[in-house]
């Protein structure tokens, strides 16, 4: 029982780490919570800090999810890694380091999936990249990627715990992107300088 509690606490603390905020504040002397979208995650780090620090934030946010998902392996526990990973996702979303606020947990969720099922992770990642290449919108790629993960977990993998977690996370991701959805509907969503949609609307 103690080991189970310890795993969840460690997972939450791992998820609570905020590399985007720390990198911006201590290296670039910018508080990314006050610039761009105000998010502490990868997309805003790319936008405010640049592609190199943005990539670092992406890898670190994913890595903390993966590390949390591997805790049952380290503790020789039979508890499902997805359940432990949920604590890291909550930690990223409600970080103790920044007043229990945080990001949308897309990268951290992907990191947990990498620990749980690497093949499935690369399938979802492939869908994410294809949609991103077409839409030039991280929000659209994230929501469709999570929707794909939910459909696959229910109808292909037949994994009840994976399916329940996927449904819950997809609903959560859509909720966290509710403002993005409004901007998408009205054609006002921010795009990244990459992909078919971006180049189509930025022709000379």
| Average pLDDT score | 93
Give the count of structural domains. 1
Largest sheet: none
The proportion of strand residues reads under 5%
Shape field: globular
Number of helices: 12
Low-confidence stretches: none
Q: H/E series, N to C?
A: HHHHHHHHHHHH
How far the N terminus sits from the C terminus, by CA atoms, comes to: 63 Å
Judged by helices, strands and strand pairing, the structural class is: mainly alpha
**How many E strands?**
0
| Rg (CA only) | 17 Å
What percent of residues adopt helix (DSSP H or I)? over 70%
Organism: Convivina intestini
Family: Belongs to the PlsY family.
Subcellular location: Cell membrane
InterPro entries: G3P_acylTferase_PlsY
Q: Could you characterize what this model shows?
A:
It is a single chain. The chain is globular, with a radius of gyration of 17 Å. It is 71% helix and 0% strand. The protein has one domain (2-200). The longest helix is centred in the N-terminal third of the chain and has 19 residues, at 51-69. With 204 residues, the protein is an all-alpha fold. The chain is built from 12 helices and no strands. The protein has helices spanning 2-16, 19-26, 42-49, 51-69, 71-74, 81-93, 106-116, 118-135, 138-155, 160-176, 178-185, 196-200.
Write the layout of secondary structure elements.
Elements: H1 2-16, H2 19-26, H3 42-49, H4 51-69, H5 71-74, H6 81-93, H7 106-116, H8 118-135, H9 138-155, H10 160-176, H11 178-185, H12 196-200
Helix pairs in contact: 1-4, 1-6, 3-4, 4-6, 4-7, 6-7, 7-8, 8-9, 9-10
